[in-house]
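Q: Could you fold this chain for me?
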Amino acid sequence: QVHIEESGGGLVQAGGSLRLSCKASWGINRFNAMAWYRQAPGKERELVARGSGSRETTYADAVKGRFTIYRDNAAKRVYLQMNSLKPEDTGVYFCVMGNVNWGQGTQVTVLP
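A: Sure. Below is the predicted structure, expressed as structure tokens.
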């Protein structure tokens, strides 16, 4: 069973940036689909960004223009670059590879 691991979360002031990183124990090359979800306290999990091997990407309206999902095959990682962070971006962020393989999540907290 593949193990998915996220990192890069933390505490940041509004307007700041973070880059989340995701790696898979099998490497990422065998996965075309990649995605980041998030779950805020008391809310349902929601899709933040999605990408595929064809490099097509989709973003939630709330993060368009601020977040970028991309993969670095050489580094064997998928990233979520988050800029101009807002307090409403606070939550646990999950990486999903191949649509079904989820990590445990990494906490992002954005202070006002």
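A (continued): The chain has no helices and eleven strands.
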